[in-house]
């Protein structure tokens, strides 16, 4: 058996695990034990990175023996059954007080279940969201750990040392207990879906409205990246639009099949929001827009459906592009507001104390949705920690005031020209729904009472009422049946 020399270990040495292990090994004071189910990945990592001084293990017993107490292991394996399989093995060789961290993309309810099961053995289990892809894992990810306060004492310094740094602060915070970290990572991914869809709609409108080439539109995005939209996603959009296909010389974006894939976390965000009763319509439209794109058979049979006669005609390209920019900014505010709403609701439902401002801060570096704008979100929560609706913070109200006319023009122009802009338009509908004095939900309650005796409340009196629709249509008080 090896001597206990490593202060942290990584299980699962595919791209994410090996990069995270290298990141850990590169930081002062860390010695990293590594283990992978099949030996080849371990051998490869050791050969390619002798500088890391890894302590290899070829069985779980060896892995446990190579770790100092409290043993701390980060699992980076295929989420799902793989994670359960590794936890089962680690629990056999670890002892009470040791720490198992799952850095995979686990569904937060699985993390809650695993935390409960592992806690019974006296071992700490921490579900940790890791954002930033391969490069983030290697150079500095945004980290969203959940789990117990006890495990944070050991993990905090290690995670702070490997996380991305934004404005001098490491992009990691103890998000909350058990599944809180994976919940927040899930919503992060949902917001990422919305942000990407909004950018794609902006590109499409500019291209169809102004006839600019992808390379010219790349310049527009590069310019936007200098202002309030400054973010990683805007930056890489310019790069993708500027890329040329080596084989054909065409813009790369024109030779890529227009069907967007998904790994499921956007869908989880929407499903969870539905369970919590939180309207994340911008995120939902982004998820569904990918799904519309990925049904070529349906798109083929629908291709000849009638559309408007007139195409989008833009007289003043510069003014139009500025309108699109403002529509994008306003819709983005809605997407983030909805995402933070879901985190608030999740925290209330699962009993987590989540500092929303701290979440905004740890997303400023390392992760895919990193953006300057997140500072404004943390400012908003610093001022009013229990802010009900993020977009009602003064900075966002000003921005929406500035953007709303342009936003409305863009949604109207897109609809008139038959250009799909589901995320722009649903964000605007949500905004108008929120600020409406009175919604037609009253009519829906009337309909529900008509066919299902679901009852309604009145604006002028306390109580719950039902109209005897199939009788004499008089009103009676009734038990609230929702
Ligand atoms: N890729 C990203 O950008 C990204 C970003 C954030 C989070 N993540 C998450 O990070 C985790 C790792 O991602 P990845 O792309 O590096 O790898 P992956 O392709 O998701 O998983 C491959 C790794 O899982 C191991 N594995 C699978 N089933 C196992 C089992 N039953 N028992 C033990 N090990 C098992 C494999 O071992 P073998 O070599 O023996 O097959 C291999 O090391 C995933 O949960 C992923 O969702 C990925």
TrEMBL record:
The active site is at 185 (proton acceptor), 192 (proton donor). Its EC number is 1.1.1.44. Substrate binds at residues 105, 131-133, 188-189, 193, 263, 290, 448, 454. Pathway: Carbohydrate degradation; pentose phosphate pathway; D-ribulose 5-phosphate from D-glucose 6-phosphate (oxidative stage): step 3/3. The keyword NADP applies. Keywords: Gluconate utilization, NADP, Oxidoreductase, Pentose shunt. It catalyses: 6-phospho-D-gluconate + NADP(+) = D-ribulose 5-phosphate + CO2 + NADPH. NADP(+) binds at residues 12-17, 36-38, 77-79, 105. It is an enzyme of class 1 (oxidoreductase). This is 6-phosphogluconate dehydrogenase, decarboxylating. It comes from Microbacterium protaetiae.
């Amino acid at each position: 058996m090896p001597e206990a020399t490593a202060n942290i270990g990584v299980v699962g040495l595919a791209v994410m695990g090996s990069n995270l292990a290298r990141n850990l090994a590169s930081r002062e004071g860390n010695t990293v034990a590594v283990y992978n189910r099949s030996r080849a990945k371990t051998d490869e990592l050791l050969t390619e990175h002798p500088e890391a001084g890894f302590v290899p293990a070829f069985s779980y017993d060896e892995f446990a023996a190579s770790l100092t107490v409290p043993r701390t292991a980060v699992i980076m394996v295929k989420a799902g059954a793989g994670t359960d399989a590794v936890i089962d093995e680690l629990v056999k060789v670890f002892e009470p007080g040791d720490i198992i961290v799952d850095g995979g993309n686990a569904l937060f309810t699985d993390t809650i279940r695993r935390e409960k099961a592992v806690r019974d053995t006296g071992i700490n289990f921490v579900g940790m969201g890791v954002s930033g892809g391969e490069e983030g894992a290697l150079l500095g990810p945004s980290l969203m750990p959940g789990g117990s306060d006890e495990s944070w004492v050991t993990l905090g310094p290690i995670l702070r040392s490997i996380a991305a740094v934004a404005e001098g602060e490491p992009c990691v915070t103890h998000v909350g207990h058990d599944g809180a970290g994976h919940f927040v990572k899930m919503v992060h991914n949902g917001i990422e879906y919305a942000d990407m869809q909004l950018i794609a709609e902006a590109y499409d409108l500019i291209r169809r409205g102004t006839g600019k080439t992808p390379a010219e539109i790349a310049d527009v995005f590069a310019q936007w990246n200098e202002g309030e939209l400054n973010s990683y996603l805007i930056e890489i959009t310019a790069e993708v639009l500027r890329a040329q296909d080596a084989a054909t010389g065409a813009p790369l974006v024109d030779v890529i099949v227009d069907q967007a894939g998904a790994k499921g976390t956007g869908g989880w965000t929407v499903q969870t929001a539905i369970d919590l009763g939180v309207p994340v319509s911008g995120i939902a439209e982004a998820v569904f827009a990918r799904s519309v794109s990925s049904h070529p058979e349906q798109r083929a049979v629908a291709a000849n459906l009638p559309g408007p006669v007139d195409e989008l005609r833009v007289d003043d390209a510069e003014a139009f592009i500025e309108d699109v920019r403002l529509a994008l900014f306003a819709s983005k505010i809605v997407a983030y507001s909805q995402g933070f709403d879901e985190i608030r609701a999740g925290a209330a439902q699962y009993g987590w104390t989540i500092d929303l401002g701290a979440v905004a801060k740890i997303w400023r570096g390392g992760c895919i949705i990193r953006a300057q704008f997140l500072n404004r979100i943390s400012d908003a929560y610093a001022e009013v920690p229990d802010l009900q609706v993020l977009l009602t913070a003064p900075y966002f109200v000003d921005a929406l005031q500035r953007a709303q006319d342009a936003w409305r023009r863009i949604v109207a122009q897109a609809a008139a020209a038959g250009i799909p802009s589901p995320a722009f338009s649903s964000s605007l509908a949500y905004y108008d729904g929120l600020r409406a004095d009175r919604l037609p939900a009253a009519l829906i309650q009337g309909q529900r009472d008509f066919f299902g005796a679901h009852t309604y409340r009145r604006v002028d009196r306390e109580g719950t009422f039902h109209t005897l629709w199939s009788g004499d249509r008089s009103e009676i008080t009734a038990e609230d049946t929702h």
